[in-house]
Amino acid sequence: MKTSTPDPRATASSDEIGLDFPAPxxxxxxxxxxxxxxxxxxxxxxxxxxxxxxxxxxxxRVIILTASGKIFCAGADIKERQDIGVQNGGHQRANRIxxxxxxxxxxSVKPVIAAINGPALGAGFVLAACCDFIFSADHATxxxxxIDVGMGGGASFLQRILPPSKFRRMMLTGEALSCQxxxxxxxxxxxxxxxxxxxxxxxLAQTIAQKSPPAVRTxxxxxxxxxxxxxxxxxxxxxxxxxxxxxxxxxxxxxQAFIEKRxxxx
Length: 266
Prior knowledge:
Helix content is 44%, strand content 16%. It is α/β, with parallel strands linked by helices and 266 residues long. The chain folds into two domains: 202 residues, CATH 3.90.226.10; 48 residues. The protein has a six-stranded mixed sheet, with helices on both faces. A three-stranded mixed sheet has the order 5-7-8. The longest helix has 17 residues.
């Protein structure tokens, strides 16, 4: 497998958004806004910039999203929201940056793996739900407590990973679920001891990073499209990208490696 050394100058990380490269073709985006990684405007902007900076990089094929501290993300910065309505258009601007903070994960052309190191509340849970996979430390909990401050939102994302009655109850009561319960429901990949969280996420990231980059990118981009289509239309859409993809140099290398019983080199 070819390797490359990321250029640290080509990152968009900030003091609050860390960026690391623990293995070839794998980037780790780390939320670092003590004490609870609350999502304020500048924090969201830095996060979006960091995610966007990774999209066209050939030396990054998979992204892991995690956080520093005891809490993955406490959701929206409630103190900051108190001042949103002071200026005209404040709510519109806040809504726009909130949307893009989720979409930069949902629309990523690189698979995104969430490594949840602690409680994920409100928008923090939604952020995790935007990822392709969720791994969680076994002590982490997940909740939608906005109802307790007279707010709401997030059902559009949570309905993708949870049964209707479950996410509705979470949103209407603010009750928290353990990572074990989310695992039982199939919403997350695994609950593991904290010491094993990053190594577990990294193992999956490295497995995906060894696959054909054009295939991974094309398949990843197709998920949102087929999600909104019926079975017949969705499979026809997938068939339309299979032919050109099969003609790529990477596909030729993958098939040749299979015939020669060796590992493909991308």
